[in-house]
Prior knowledge:
Layout: H1 14-22, E1 27-30, E2 33-36, H2 42-62, E3 65-69, E4 74-77, E5 82-84, E6 88-92, E7 112-116, H3 123-135, E8 140-145, E9 150-155, E10 160-163, E11 168-170, E12 179-181, H4 182-186
Parallel strand pairs: 7-8
Antiparallel strand pairs: 1-2, 3-6, 4-5, 6-7, 8-9, 9-10, 11-12
Amino acid sequence: MTTTTTTEAKLLTADDLLRLYREGVRGELIRGVLCETMASGQEHGEIVMNLGIEMGKFIKPRKLGRLMGSDAGVWLDRDPDTVREPDIAFFSAEKVPEGRRVTGYAEVAPDIVVEVTSPSDSRREVHDKAHMWLGHGVQLVWVVHPETRTVDVHMSDGSVTTLAQDDTLDGHDVLPGFSCPVSAVFDT
């Protein structure tokens, strides 16, 4: 007689992910499955800070909203839960009012998401990730490619434009008036 046992992996929740983070486990939750992430290196971190500083200099004095880094997390789906970590997320003041304390994950989609690619990311993977963000209501996704020193601008209408170092990144109608030379993103 043969006995067969099947074990289903237990799907994790957003609360489980917060608990794991406190225990030193870092990652995203995709449909209840933990996808651990690793530190991306100095160049990645410098690019995130460069663009975060440029955005912050524009957003903060005008009180246009809030910027968040990757470890903040955005809760996109429930049952099973999905929590993703954009490198930078901008939430308009209408979505996340100033002074409102949020101790867990953001539960609304950001207005702008920035993803900085790592050498192991394929262009297809980051393109799919940008479309995932747009599918959850993000209006503008900037995908930064350190290897080519370019930025792909994904708009909510499905259009994609690639900017080179001599071009200017702007906030379109999502963050009107914001502009930044693409070269400033890569200044290290």
